[in-house]
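Problem 12. The chain below contains 143 residues. Write out its predicted structure in token notation.
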Amino acid sequence: MSRSVTSLSIAHIRRFATAVVVGAASGALCLGVGGRLAMHAFALATAQSAGFTVRGSLNVVFAGAIAGAIGGLLLAAIQRFLTQRLWLRGVLFGVVCYLIAIPGFRPPQPLVFALFAPAFLGYGVVFAVTWERFVRSRRLTSA
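Solution.
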């Protein structure tokens, strides 16, 4: 195998690994914590018991990190098809992730959709901005 092919493969592996880490961190913050807040708001809005446990909240944050890591891989794969305007790219990416996640929302009610939308939009923007800054800093240090 030639040296350029090996370095190209390493660059791809590094890119996708970075996407997983940045996606997981953004997902834990926006999807995990934001999802927990959306669940709490749903319970309050529907007059249900708004129970809170540390274990339950950590499960939701962990699920957000996993979803965020998967989203990171998705963005690394589709980034070239999205607009170059950073904020718009983040919003569009958040919308794509939200549309993918909609079938999993329980209960499937308009209130649930409305409460979770900001978490996904926030995830898209936070991830896109963090990703762009990290990629830009890697370009500057490797030049």
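Discussion. Residues 3-142 form one domain. Students who got a different answer should revisit the alignment rule from Section 12.3.
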